[in-house]
């Protein structure tokens, strides 16, 4: 009986072609900004990781707005003569709904402010981000004071439920020539702990926003550093006293390093 012929071995399958590594065209751009750009997609939806990161950022922003400022911890890090005041807003909900009340001192706080001979007063206000104040206010203040040893500085004032214009009332009652208010900025979805500084010469109730200089985006997550902000602030303060003004007529861009004298004097 003849033996069956064994089948011929199957030819090997051709190797799959090597795929080139996928290049993300957005990768380098993401290194230059905290904005959410070039987000990945899964089907017609965003990737789960990006969705969760967005929700976390939104939660941090809400917490920054609604969390009460820890004034006890803040006072412990400040000179013992600091003064704590509050606005006419009786709570956070009122503060958010009635910005006008956040610009006014509570009647009980008015008596705490006594007039003196001061070149400047620093006000630390919770604003719209208590997180920004808790993290950045004290180191920012220390950096500025180290550059103003020749200034007559009023006791530091802590203001709660406060808007920028509350500094006008405080500065006027203390008799300060300048008011610099360090305040928590409106939180975004990139950074919830950004601090702003508003400087006003001859502060008084009813002062217009155009009469102030603003330094913003002060934080440790890629924002303006304390030293850079302090350099700009103290330059503006000295120029404000020399020229007796702040606001649109005092060009803060002239305070940047490398500005020539003829660029500084308007």
Integer tally of domains: 1
Can you tell me the overall shape? elongated
The count of DSSP E runs of length 2 or more, i.e. the number of strands, is 8
* CATH third-level topology: Rossmann fold
Distance between the termini: 115 Å
CATH class: Alpha Beta
The largest pleated sheet is described as: 6 strands, mixed
Category by helix and strand content: alpha/beta
How much strand content do the residues show?
15-25%
How many helices in DSSP terms? 10
Short description:
The chain contains 10 helices and 8 strands.
Which helices and strands appear, and what pairs or packs with what?
Blueprint: H1 27-30, E1 41-42, E2 45-46, H2 48-66, H3 71-76, E3 83-86, H4 92-97, H5 99-102, H6 107-110, E4 118-125, H7 130-145, E5 157-160, H8 166-174, E6 176-184, E7 195-201, E8 212-218, H9 226-243, H10 261-264
Helix pairs in contact: 7-9
